[in-house]
UniProtKB/TrEMBL annotation:
Stored InterPro entries: Phage_tail_collar_dom, Phage_tail_collar_dom_sf
Organism (species): Fertoeibacter niger
Domain of life, per lineage: Bacteria
SUPFAM superfamilies reported in the protein's UniProt record: Receptor-binding domain of short tail fibre protein gp12
Domain Phage tail collar stretches: 17-72
Protein name: Tail fiber protein
Length: 187
């Protein structure tokens, strides 16, 4: 069996600024969690020269790391027919609330007939004419075919404007950014 002159390592030497998802609870040596931390430009000058102020900082002595906690990464630029996205831009929310203006135009028809009602309870029945005064005031439904549709203005809007979740299914992992390694060559 041959002896290794150096300690065996998996993987390759990272480029500074590489982002890696790991299945364990910490980032390896030479990597920091991508959690939006503010770092010193002086201490991490090589990394700063690559990411600049795209992820925050004070504009002179500190810069920010990307914050991938609870976020999905998206490529910068724009695909065919898509909105342009800039490096460091954050968008989206976990929940959304639709308003009436965001729902496609539609109507709800209320069918009725002009016969005297003869059934109590609406289950599968149509609204009918009220019976003559004093005769079973609860029998205002009929199972006869509809002969008219009521105006859409007769029906009020409904809903609670409650937010709903819009997240895709996900698996949580730790994202790390390389602070040490090779400086990536420009093309």
């Amino acid at each position: 069996m041959a002896a290794f002159p150096q300690q065996a390592r998996a993987g390759i030497e990272p480029y500074i600024g590489d982002i890696l998802a790991v299945g364990y609870t910490y980032c390896p040596d030479g990597w920091l969690s991508a959690e939006g931390q503010i770092l010193s430009i002086q201490q991490y000058s090589a990394l700063f020269s690559l990411v600049g102020f795209a992820y925050g900082g004070n504009g002179s002595t500190s810069f920010g790391l990307p914050d991938l906690r609870g976020r999905a990464a998206m490529g910068q630029g724009s695909g065919n027919g898509l909105t342009p996205r800039s490096q460091g831009q954050t968008l989206g929310s976990e929940n959304q609330t639709l308003t009436a203006d965001q729902i496609p135009f539609h109507t709800h028809a209320v069918n009725a007939n002009n016969l005297d009602g003869d059934l109590p309870g609406p289950g599968g029945k149509l609204l009918a004419a009220a019976p003559p005064s004093g005769v079973g005031s609860e029998t205002i439904y009929s199972d006869q075919p509809a002969d008219r549709t009521m105006s859409a203005a007769m029906i009020a809007s409904s809903g609670q404007n409650a937010p709903f979740n819009v997240q895709d299914p996900y698996l949580v992992m730790r994202y790390c950014i390389a602070t040490e390694g090779l400086y990536p060559p420009r093309p």
